[in-house]
Amino acid sequence: MPVPQPADAARRWIVVQHTATEGPGLLAGVLAEAGVPSRVVRLDRGEALPAPSDVAGVIVMGGPMGVHDTAEHPWLGAETRWLTGAVDAGLPVLGVCLGAQLVAAALGAAVTTGASPEIGIGCVTLDPEGRADPLLGPEGDRLPVVHWHGDTFAIPDGAVRLASSDRYQNQAFRYGDRVYGLQFHLEVDDEVAADWAPDLPAGISLDGPERRAVEETGRRVFGRFIDLASAADGD
Prior knowledge:
Elements: E1 12-17, H1 26-33, E2 38-42, E3 55-60, H2 75-88, E4 93-96, H3 98-106, E5 111-126, H4 128-131, E6 142-153, E7 159-164, E8 172-175, E9 179-182, H5 190-196, H6 209-233
Helix pairs in contact: 1-6, 2-3
């Protein structure tokens, strides 16, 4: 039986989490500083997604599983269908890494395995559409990011590609005014970096000033996403 939610939770943003070590990171602070009520839904613990009509916005985090790993993680199929409904309902939706792949799949795009994993601190280059985009464009031509993925997505029909890297052509897309998929990570704060450290390949570190630059970029980008969502709602 679903657990009743308090009345003030009816129109919160939700952060969809798929594994213990890939939570919202610095996004939690950005949401709180913006005065945006939010709660985390742990699909890996069997928690249920609320009806899109009870949600103000959606952020979908990453995870080590793939979109098609439904035998091991049967909730992935239901999540993809739920995201289709969230987009159709006009909600602001931001997908990060696996989250971006799930949003792409929800919009009918293919998600496939790339030639080789892309892991570590790096950058993405904005396309002309990305440089004109209100979310990513203010950062300039290139963004410092954290990569950790081996899958990739096609750009959904009706969406525009915003960024690429030397190894993966599709790094970000926008669908409509406020649905975004980011293949890369910008949410990595000290706590997330420490959680990830034991599983990083040998020779790869997320310590140092390069990751601090990613964190600063993430705070700006995520803050603009909340502003875009609020402006579209007329707040």
